[in-house]
Amino acid sequence: MYYSKLRAKARESLKGNWLIAIGLFVLTTIIFTLPDFIFNPNEYDFSWRDVAVILTTWLLTPITVGLTWAWIDMSRGKSISFGHLVHPFQTIFAKTIFVSFLQGLFLLLWTLLFIVPGIIKSFSYMMTFYILRDRPELSPLEVITESRKMMNGHKGEAFVLGLTFIGWLLLGVVTLGIGFLWIVPYISVTFAHFYDTIREEYEAKHA
To answer: What are the extents of the domains in the chain?
Structure first.
C-alpha cells in the first residue's frame, strides 16, 4: 500500500507536466552523451580521451543535481523549467562537484571492501542530492552524513520501491527504449515523494 501511494502521488504530480518532464530527461541524456561523442574514446586502449570524458562528465554533475531538484519541486506542486538544470551551476557548483567526488570515493572504498556493503552504502547516500535542495548550507561531508542518517531504517524500503518498477523497466526494454521517456520521470518523481516522506519523519524525530 505504501509503495502504491507513492506511485499514485507521482502520477498526480506528473499530470500536466509530462512534456516538460520528458524534455528535461531527454536534454540531460543528450548532454551526458556529448563528452563521449566529442572525444570519441578508444574502445580498447585507455587514453587521454577517456580521461577527458570522465572529467567532463564529472564537471556536468550539477546538471544531475538540477534534474533531481526539478523532480523534487514537481513532487511539491511547484512549476519546473529547463532552468533547473543550470541552477546548481549558478549557486553551489563547487559544492556539488566535491559532494560527487566524496560520494564516489566512499562508494568505491566500500565496494573494494565487499560488493554487498558497497550496494548498501549506495542506498545510504542516495538522498544526498535531494538534501542539497533543502539544506544547501551544509558542507559536502555533512550532506552525505545527513543522507546516511535519514536513510537509516529506510534502505530496504528504497530497494523494494525500486523493485516495484521492474515491470515498467522491462516494458522500456521491449519498446526499444522509447518507453523510458515516460518511465524515468515516473520513477524519479516517485522517489522524490519517497524523499519527502522520510524527510518529514526524520525531521519530526529530530525536532
So the answer is: 2-205
Q: Residue ranges of the chain with pLDDT lower than 70?
A: 1, 43-44
Write down the pTM of the prediction: 0.91
- The letter for the amino acid at 138 is L
Reading the block at residue 146, the C-alpha cell is 545527513
Residue 4 — φ and ψ, nearest 5°? -65, -35
Give the model's pLDDT for residue 46: 75
Q: pLDDT value at position 157?
A: 95
What angle do helix axes 180-205 and 18-39 make, rounded to 10 degrees?
110
DSSP string, 19-75: HHHHHHHHHHHHHHHHHHHHH---SSS--HHHHHHHHHHHHTHHHHHHHHHHHHHHH
- Among residues 100, 147, 158, the alpha carbon closest in space to that of 124 is found at 147
End-to-end CA distance of the chain: 28
Q: What is the largest CA-CA distance in the chain?
A: 54
Distance between CA 134 and CA 67 in Å, rounded?
Answer: 14
Are 10 and 74 a contacting pair, CB within 8 Å? no
- Grid coordinates representing 150 are 535519514
Instruction: Provide the pLDDT for residue 100.
Output: 93
Which residue in 110, 136, 122, 134 sits closest to 198, CA to CA?
A: 134
**Measured between alpha carbons, how far is 168 from 186 in angstroms, rounded to an integer?**
10
Segment 145-171, tens digit of pLDDT: 999 999 999 999 999 999 999 999 999
